Amino acid sequence: MKAESMPVDWDKARALAYEAGRAAAAPAERVPLSVADGRTLAEPLVALSELPAFPTSSIDGWAVRGPEPWRPIGRVLAGDTPAPLTAPGTCVEIATGAMVPVGAEAVVRVEESARDAEGRVTGRPRPEPEWRMPGDEAREGEQLLPAGTPIDPAVLGMAATCGYDTIPVRPLPRAALLVFGDELLTSGPPGEGRVRDSLSPLVPAWLRRSGAAVDPSAVQGPVQDTLEAHVDAIRAGLAVADLVCTTGGTMHGPVDHLHPALTRLGAEYVVNTVAVRPGFPMLLARVPGPDGRPRFLAGLPGNPQSAVIALVSLVAPLLAGLQGRELPALPQVEVTAPVPGRGSFTHLSLAALDARGRAVPVSHVGSSMLRGLANAHGFVVIRPDTKAAAGDLVPFLPLPLYPGERP
């Protein structure tokens, strides 16, 4: 198992994690629309017919032929197939969404019409047609959404409009979490040399927001601080998950068994340490799978903020690749206060977004702290050998969100 001799540049590490995921993406599967929310399109979504498929009234009113007044000869409701309108001076009452009869020359709004003493309809059509023509929204065979599109309720509605009952999607990557550290408490307040495990509730929630499926039973720990216990726990996790995240043990201390465990499992490093502060002793490894597809292990540092930085730096790009999604570009934001650099390392500095979308640095940002993280929306990215002054535009790495969530 070959390890990197130097920490990998942060941007390169993100790209390596993403490409590793893309190369290992599982084959597509077809699922009903009812269970496709949150998945990813594995193929382009194309129109199966023209949309709309027939001339469709946009209003409640009268479909008319010839000059006014018009003699009503029927009614067309949504779902009807009307007879042609052939005689001048005739009309049919029509509902919104109903098919416009062949031969109709205009549709008059009901609120802009009147009936004379003989029941005939008068009114003036508006200059623009009051119906949608076939193909107004899409032509048959036209690509509506590309492969890699995250599926949300709007996409589901679009697919249903087109006539899809099932759609091709990427399988949800399955993730597991192993928490290392004999010093951790699983309940109650910290004290007497022991600290509360904060990563068991934190990591799975952000894995789900990044597109992974995490069964509660796949969260295990604290794992005993022995090499054999680590190897056994990792094997068990890899048996049920595409990705196993571990917390702690990424260095080479007396109870840091992760690297020897990976060697025993025949793993190959994708990334081993990243030139980023906080959180540089993160790693991503590829482990052979029994079906020929690789599995992955992401080693997150034990300090909470460092673990989250590893999640957004390596795990989120990996999951994007496994789902066939694009690696999101980082938006540029204005910082409201100076942000220092960290020498030759990239600095990820916690910040909140104000009402104008500017990044405001938060306090309590030590790598072992969660208070700053709880008040932040993401990280300002300060490139190596640079710093930011108030008013500068810099890249911003958002914390993972569910579709529709807003920072």
Automatic annotation (TrEMBL):
GO CC list: cytosol
Catalyzed reactions per annotation: adenylyl-molybdopterin + molybdate = Mo-molybdopterin + AMP + H(+)
Species per Swiss-Prot/TrEMBL record: Winogradskya consettensis
Enzyme nomenclature, EC number: 2.10.1.1
Role, per record: Catalyzes the insertion of molybdate into adenylated molybdopterin with the concomitant release of AMP.
Disordered, as annotated region: 114-136
Similarity section: Belongs to the MoeA family.
Gene Ontology MF, one: molybdopterin molybdotransferase activity
Protein name (record): Molybdopterin molybdenumtransferase
Biochemical pathway: Cofactor biosynthesis; molybdopterin biosynthesis
InterPro entries: MoaB/Mog-like_dom_sf (IPR036425), MoaB/Mog_dom (IPR001453), MoeA-like (IPR038987), MoeA_C_domain_IV (IPR005111), MoeA_C_domain_IV_sf (IPR036688), MoeA_linker/N (IPR005110), MoeA_linker/N_sf (IPR036135)
Sequence intervals crossing the membrane: none
